[in-house]
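Forgive a beginner's question, but would it be possible to get a protein, spelled out as residues, together with the matching structure tokens, please?
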Amino acid sequence: MTDHALLLVNLGSPASTSVADVRSYLNQFLMDPYVIDLPWPVRRLLVSLILIKRPEQSAHAYASIWWEEGSPLVVLSRRLQQAMTRQWQHGPVELAMRYGEPSIESTLVRLVAAGHKRITLAPLYPQFADSTTTTVIEEARRVVREKNLDVQLSVLQPFYDQPEYLDALVATTRPHLQQDFDHLLMSFHGLPERHLKKLNPGHSFEGGGDCCAGAPPEVVATCYRGQCLRTAAEFAKRMGLPEGKWSVSFQSRLGRAKWIEPYTEARLDELAKSGVKKVLVMCPAFVADCIETLEEIGDRGKEQFRAAGGEDLVLVPCLNDDPHWARALSALCERAPIAL
């Protein structure tokens, strides 16, 4: 066996649906400065206020979608890990979570202790954001530095426009789009606008069009909204979806700050009121189904759409552990550049 291991990293999940476990998870998640990018004292105060009521609400939401085997996100990520062991021929395939267990630190330390001198780090996020991609990379770098690990890291880059990812998305989604439907909504995870403006001051992220049309490569490389729009447009093109049959929105707002638009909640209301009776919703920012897809869209989104006058909302599954996705991910990881 060669010593080139693959480490898949996803967001994470509470250990259980208990309020205590959910509070612990949310505290770790929200205290990450890449998630809430405020000075530590302000962030600590804000998170403490959020943790008064949010854990109980979130625990109820997690309980509504929890599987017998555990958190859907973790279970599906484990299944992908197993599928990847059949694709990755260079060494072991491990799984870590940015928040919760198994941690990036414990997994990296164990891999290096087992003699693996080269590791490809694969953040499982198609589009770039500091709160997803950057925090995974920086946590890995912290562990390597503080534990003095003798290892060479390669890092999977955002793959929002890569043919392998888009083709896998088409292959896994096509059967669901063969049913009758009025509109396809591609709902991506949202971000506060300030996250994008901090990376690219002066770049506009507003309006309904492509905010990155004609933008220089360095802007495109860190513009989450533009990358989401590119994923959606490329997918629609591959599927042959006509204009007007599909649209893009952003979900999961938290707090009072302005987030990138259009908002999924508002878009569902608009679609229902415009006469759309059956809407399909897919979530291309997620590679595994989780609370944001199963509960936020599949349950609450469906209730909202029906309340607004629609008849049915069908959630299209994420890539999960589909063989097309495992093959695509392996090919993408083969090209991962060595991190500086």
About this structure: The mean pLDDT is 94. The longest strand covers residues 4-12. The longest helix spans residues 40-65.
